[in-house]
Design brief:
With about 80 residues, the protein is mainly alpha-helical. It has one domain. About 85% of the residues lie in helices and about 0% in strands. The radius of gyration is 24 Å and the shape is rod-shaped.
Length: about 80
């Protein structure tokens, strides 16, 4: 486990302290879970952007292949 020095804005710290006491979780565990959640969120967003970019790259080819398949179906 890595040690880390962290500066929080006062209002974020106060809210965190209130929540931590209510959910009966230690501050380190709570912050670790929050960062893990935020990392998952951003990984998904980055993946979505990547998939969008790659879909645009292959869109033309995909339409051409689809048109070829439709021609084959029309010939039957």
């Amino acid at each position: 486990m890595k040690n880390l020095s962290l500066k929080l804005e006062e209002d974020i710290f106060q809210e965190t302290e209130k929540i931590v006491s209510k959910v009966k979780k230690n501050r380190n565990r709570y912050i670790n879970e929050a960062i893990e959640f935020y990392n998952r969120l951003h990984r998904r967003r980055l993946l979505s952007k990547q998939l969008s970019r790659e879909s645009k790259i292959v869109a033309k080819d995909s339409l051409e292949v689809l048109a070829e398949f439709e021609k084959l179906n029309d010939e039957d």
